[in-house]
Design goal:
864 residues, alpha+beta, 3 domains, six-stranded mixed barrel, 26 helices
Length: 864
Amino acid sequence: MLRYCKALWRNLFRREQVERELDEEIRGYMEMMGTRGGIEQVKESVRDVRAGASLETLAQDLRYGLRTLKRNRGFAAVAIGTLALGIGATTTMFTIVDGVLLKPLPYPDPERLVMLWERQIPTGEIGTVAPANFYDWRAQSRSFAHMAAVDPYPDFILTGAGEPRRLAGAAVSYDFFRLFGTRMALGRDFVEAEDHPGRGQVVILSYAAFVRYFGARAEVVGHAATLNGSSFTVVGVLPRDFSLAARASDFQGRGRFEVFTPLALASPPEAWQRGTHPLCVFARLKVGVTLAGAQSDLDRIAGVLQRLFPADDQEAGIAAVPLGRRVVENVRTALVTLLAGVGMVFLIACANIANLLLTRAAARQREMNLRVALGASQGRLARQLFTESMVLAAAGGALGVAMAIMGVPALVRRLPADLPRAAEIAVDWRVLAFTTVVALATGVLFGLVPLAPSLRTGVRSVAARQSRLRSALVVGQVAIALVLLTGAGVMAKSLSRLLAVAPGFRTDDILTARLSLPPRFTNGYKFGVGKHREISRFERDLVERVRDIPGVESAAFAAYLPLGGTDNSWAFQIEGRPPKPAGVYDSANYRPVSGGYFETLGIPVVRGRGFNDRDTEDSPLVVAMNESMARMFWGQADPIRQRLRFGGEEWRSVVGVVGDVHHAALGAKPEPEMYLPYAQAPNVEARPTIVVRTAVQPAGVVNALRRAVAETAPDVPMDQIATMQQIVYGSVGESRFQTALLAAFAAMALAVASIGLYGVMSYMVSMRMREFGIRMAVGASRGAVLELVLRQAGKLAALGIAIGLAAAAMLARLIASLLYGVKPFDVATVAIVSAVLAIVALMASYLPARRAALADPMDSLRYE
């Protein structure tokens, strides 16, 4: 390749020689005409003439190249189509990577935005923030221009406009939108006076809520909306393009908010607000302050709080994480891997185009020799061939952009629901600039390969060089295809094993729906068992109605549905055990459920009993746990009839041990979980999920379920209706997307590599037809000729597979974090992929080999 580049350089860019020739020509012209003017003046005139000639030459080259491609429509179609496939796939994947990873966050000076977290010093884990801590951080920090918090948990029920609807809400500090540099599309932002308890019932709408629920009527600003039974004044509407760039998991899957209200923290905060941790905190660094300097400032604040509040903050630090890094840290590896995969497909496409051009250059060798004999310079021929390559690149690039424009929206619709910044994925000027650079680089890349050999004389020497180059390109194609096929194979095997995981509950014929309870049920959010009897009464009445629906076998309620994206954990104390040191406590995931929940979902009761309708507010307090919790805290002992409690409440008796459930993810190890009856939950669970097991198709009972909810409580909206099969399937959406995309890239690579091998073997057969004729004339059988061709193809494929295996072994660790239950370099998968690739390579070579074996020896001897 280096030799070819040097030849091109000599032929195209001999500036010094051209300048010397120009000077000599000018001097001769001046002597002949007796011109006395300066040589530079004359030189400029000659340059002007030559520039016009160069433009005319370029136009001539373009016209000739287009005519040549028009005469060879088959070659042009294959070359442009292959190139468009490579550029289109690369552009599409780059658009996603650019929108999620590379494009700056859509805020002014996004590099100054950070998220602040409470950090557990012993483990280094980070978590959400206590309101009282946020209050102190904002008051004591010296490094931030703004610090704002969001509580992502409030829900609002919109009434007064048809059937009730649940709106996902967030409570934010008054300067939250100022921190992000956001201006309202309509109305105004919150003011500081509204960010205090009881100071104002005001709300800001997202643009989507403004359109969907209020008909995009501008007069809604300044008027009242009934939310949660109270009147709120709409003071502003966010712009259409505003999005809160954060991981959905930071907000328990609640990343798309429809309404915002003031956070309204007490000043100073109450003592209990240091023990609860609902807030996500954002901050903007002051100009000139580095992240390291801000972290030192936060460490100082953490030290002060540790001394002042040892019961809550003794083991707590503060971590500042750049917002841009936080948003994408969970998806960076997957997206970079997919971009590398499509890049490999692009390289294979380029190699295929280079092979096509090599074949075409060999066929045009007589034409080149004739043009040289007629006086054409090698530089002139080089420019002509290079122009044709750039025409192909431009056409392939244009078609690739068209494919990307059509493919990106279709691909975005299939992205995982929790992919951050998905709304910002679009084909824009950045993507078009990338595609332009790729198309130009592609024209240079596959234009250089056949260029220098085509300018040499001697058909045999050129053919030999081109044959070696073709073989090297095919070996590279096979190697890259094997890497992609291996990656797709282990990803598919990982997904298969993930889907084979027993979730610990029944998935067939289970319907789920989320309900949102208005404030009249919550009784002022009082803490303690028996404080929310209205909720218990509603749930009992609704379950009785639902159980009477034809086709329903059982029904129950749960606060946190498995694989539903939300979770909670509580600290507890076991009776008879010594108290833990300050800041240390036992904890487990917290699961309020109603009677019949284990039976409805098919969760086995291993020991003891489950819950029933007799476990009410007035009966003895009970609790059940999963096997993981029993093993962690009781070991081999039986926890039945042991007691535990939350905080200062009464002791609860352990009445049952149930099977483990994969709650967070199918690939995640089950964690300790404790279940308690809904009626005995000490806190408010205002977003319960009803779970219904049916004897018919679950979709057939949805309307009856809606009627049952409306008859029980007309002001309770129902949404997020899904079967458990859909929930389980959706929980592996990211793995499915990655596997499907990588498999598509691998299939492209295999197809293009096979075409490339077929082309090389076809050309090799055509070049050796005289040899095959001589062999058969002196007694070689047709089988021997067939074996000879297939053996050569097998050598190329074997060398490509060997190189591909080495590359796959080195790159395996890149996808290790994306796999479940499979080693990155899985021997069985590699063996199958190698065998498949070898078979495909031999099949691609069989037709050229068969043509050589069936040729008539006399025709082969006359072949030129």
